[in-house]
Write a structure and sequence with these properties.
Layout lengths: L4 E3 L23 E10 L10 E13 L2 E4 L1 H4 L2 E7 L6 E10 L4 E6 L22 E6 L8 E14 L7 E7 L11 E4 L2 E10 L6 E5 H10 L13 E4 L4 H6 L9 E6 L14 E5 L2 E2 L5 E4 L2 E4 L1 H5 L6 E8 L2 E8 L19 E4 L2 E5 L2 H6 L5 H9 L13 E6 L14 E6 L2 E2 L3 H8 L7 E6 L6 E4 L3 H12 L5 E2 L4
Antiparallel strand pairs: 1-12, 2-3, 2-5, 3-4, 4-7, 5-6, 6-7, 8-9, 8-11, 9-10, 10-13, 11-12, 12-13, 14-15, 15-16, 16-17, 16-20, 18-19, 20-21, 22-23, 22-29, 23-24, 24-25, 25-26, 25-27, 27-28
Protein name: Trypsin-like peptidase domain-containing protein
Pfam families: PDZ_2, PDZ_3, Trypsin_2
Keywords: Hydrolase, Protease, Serine protease, Signal
């Protein structure tokens, strides 16, 4: 996670000199103000409904009843209202498609008639380095349209702060992108060259935009009526700068080739590449020793080749194994298990309350809201995808809380441990844990083994029903479990 990146719908402003056109003409009128009321799930007490919040963002019209914005602007929304420039009228909107992995969303309004005569933005190309762009939107602090001018200073492949796990092409500009600008268009020569979406905490006048290859891919993906997410190459690489390493792999000192460090089980390259291979080219583009390729004259991460493709597409790989070159074609597929490492939205937390013990599946949302310092939990989390932990367990179930009750007295030491077995059976998922805790024939005791704990948790069956009633009444818990992300 790169904490220095900051999504900007609801965050502190960055200083900037801006111009506020008193009567914007033409295409400016198609930039809308988005007002969102949201509800943030509570992962620390998952039976609660969560806190309410709100924020301001921007969006722009790209077609008939098609309004593009950032996913983080409308995340966890309960109500979305739009304003056209110069009109006090608010229009109810809904989310048609959302892509949290690339921070984009498409909205529609119930009645588009008032928008019909407004011009439509067209999508351009990636802006060149040192070229000037304009960021248009409704930053917090006013209801008038604002325009910020900046120059493109970098084109990179970097982490998107909204999910904190996904990396895509990114364009840096030397203009601040303020809260409220999020989702607004970045324009050059009358065309959209990006969507404003995040800024830099440590610097003024530095903003980031989602460039057009990411936008176009999102719009192409949803053409069939659903968003399918990104495919994944399923490999981790290590740079080959060190002359001694290159010599050990019998590589010439030509700056080409990157080491394959791990191959994700069940991923696109599983059974094709293996740890220790040297990846030389992807789709005919030479891979340098830093894992970079050249696309449209720019040096970008080799994964950008995969970024522009879809699940089911073919990718040609050239690699070196035992000093011999090999050519192979792989079929791309997604890696849904990797969402473990991404922040999730629009999902209620899953949980089980059992005689005061609270069990939850491990993911990034839980890590962000609960103190989980146990080394075994951290290891299980880190190894879940790279080492194929998901092949054994659909969920890593964690004992996150122990509510105070006579039955749970002196059990606090067990908080924060991952569950290994219940009555001798390995726990595969939260649903499986619920089945093991609620069998047709109850045992005399429930014995819960935890990773890293010297002794198990032991609960007498005869006392569970009374304990559940006390816990529900004392803590206002209406449901003892939620097993699906509703």
């Amino acid at each position: 996670m790169r904490s220095w990146l900051l999504a900007l719908a609801l965050t502190l402003p960055l200083a900037s000199a801006q111009e506020s056109p008193s009567a914007p003409s033409g295409i400016y009128k198609s930039v809308v103000r988005i007002e969102v009321a949201s509800q943030i799930p509570d992962y620390s007490t998952p039976w609660n409904s969560g806190r309410f919040s709100g924020g301001i963002g921007s969006g722009f019209i790209i077609g008939k009843n098609k309004i593009l914005t950032n996913a983080h602007v409308i995340s966890n929304s309960r109500r979305i209202l739009l304003n056209i420039y110069g009109s006090p009228k608010k229009y109810a909107a809904k989310v048609e498609f959302v892509a949290h992995d690339c921070d984009l969303a498409l909205l529609s309004v119930e009645d588009f008639s008032d928008f019909e005569k407004l011009p439509v933005f067209s999508i351009g190309d990636v802006p060149a380095l040192e070229s000037q762009v304009r960021v248009i939107g409704y930053p917090i602090g006013g209801e008038r349209l604002s325009v910020t001018r900046g120059v493109v200073s970098r084109i990179d492949f970097s982490t998107y702060s909204h999910s904190q796990a996904d990396s895509h092409l990114i364009v840096q500009i030397d203009a601040a992108i303020n809260p409220g600008n999020s989702g607004g268009p970045v324009v050059q020569d009358g065309k959209v060259v990006g969507v404003a979406f995040q800024g830099l905490r440590q610097a003024d006048n530095t903003g980031y935009i989602i460039p057009t290859p990411v936008i176009k891919r999102f719009l192409k993906d949803i053409e069939d009526g659903r968003y399918d997410s990104y495919a994944d190459l399923g490999v981790a690489d290590f740079p080959l700068f060190n002359p001694a390493m290159r010599k050990a792999f019998n590589l010439p000192d030509d700056g080409n080739g990157v080491l394959v460090s791990t191959v994700t089980p069940t991923g696109s390259c599983d059974g094709v590449l293996k740890s220790g291979d040297i990846l030389l080219a992807i789709d005919g583009k030479e891979v340098d020793s830093a894992g970079m390729v050249t696309i449209d004259g720019e040096e970008v991460n080799m994964n950008e080749v995969v970024e522009r493709k879809f699940s089911g597409d073919k990718v040609a790989l050239r690699y070196l194994r035992d000093g011999k070159p090999n050519d192979v074609e792989i079929t791309l597929k997604p890696l849904p298990q990797a969402r473990m490492y991404a922040v999730q939205y629009e999902k209620k937390p899953r949980y089980i309350v059992f005689a005061g013990l609270v069990f939850q599946p491990l993911d990034t949302n839980l890590l962000r809201s609960t103190k989980l310092d146990d080394i075994n939990v951290r290891r299980l989390f880190a190894d879940y995808v790279p080492k194929g932990g998901f092949q054994k367990r659909d969920d890593i179930v964690v004992l996150t809380r122990i509510e105070s009750d006579p039955l749970t007295s002196q059990m606090d030491e067990f908080t924060g441990f991952a569950v290994d077995k219940i009555n001798g059976v390995e726990v595969k998922s939260l649903k499986h844990a619920n089945e093991l805790l609620n069998p047709e024939q109850k045992p005399e005791f429930f014995v819960i083994d935890l990773f890293g704990s010297d002794r198990p948790v032991v609960i007498p069956s005869a006392e569970i029903e009374a304990a559940n009633k006390r816990i529900q009444l004392g803590y206002g818990i209406k449901r003892l479990s939620r097993l699906d992300e509703e």
